[in-house]
Amino acid sequence: MKSLLIAVAATALFTSGAHAFSEEDLAKLLATNECVGCDLRHADLKAAKLAGADLRKANLRDADLKDADLTGANLAGADLRRTDLEKALLIRANLAGVNAAGADFEKADLSGADLSGADLRNSDMEQTNLTGATLAEANLGGADFKRADLTHANLAAVTAEKSNFERAILRNARLDGAMLAWADLDRADLSQASLKEADLSNARIKRANLSGANLEGAILKDAVLRITRLDGANLQGVKGLKAYQLERACGNAATVLPKKMTIRACN
What we know:
Elements lengths: L1 H18 L3 H10 L217 E2 L12 E2 L2
Parallel strand pairs: 1-2
């Protein structure tokens, strides 16, 4: 019995230590606004004023940064797994290469931010402002971008299989070479977007706006294009597209279609 109690106590001590942030590191951050490689796991930084902070490679896993001001902060390579960043200000912040799998960015402002190469799998990006942001080569698998604003964002070569972009704004966004198989793009605004060589296999693109979009060389095998606007869109060289997929879509005289395919005019 005694040995069992000792084992339980040791386990509790180890678990506590494994999840506690460094008080010294937290004090350093609050005093100097920089803490490269610091241990801030589970730290309470709600509404913290950290504009311009240097947090490169910091461990912020499970930390609370809700409503925090991280405008212009450098978080390159940081661990943000399951971090709460709801409504945080991350305008022009550097998040290149971060691991933010499962993080909560709902309603955060990431306009102009650099998230290139970031791991954002299963993250919550609902209603997030990502206008002009760079997400090139990021992993967005299973992430929720419902109603997010990605106007002029760079999503070239992203992995976004099974991601949710329902009602997202992707006007003038760059999605060249993006993996969007099985993605939900229902009612999304992709007008003037570039989707060259993108993989949209089995994607749901119902009632979406693809006016003026460039889909040259894209894969559209089994994609659902019901009530989708394709006026002025370029579908030259698309792969896997069948005539039946265009039966309930619409376009105009400026729509570029594969040979022998037709489309009804948009109202």
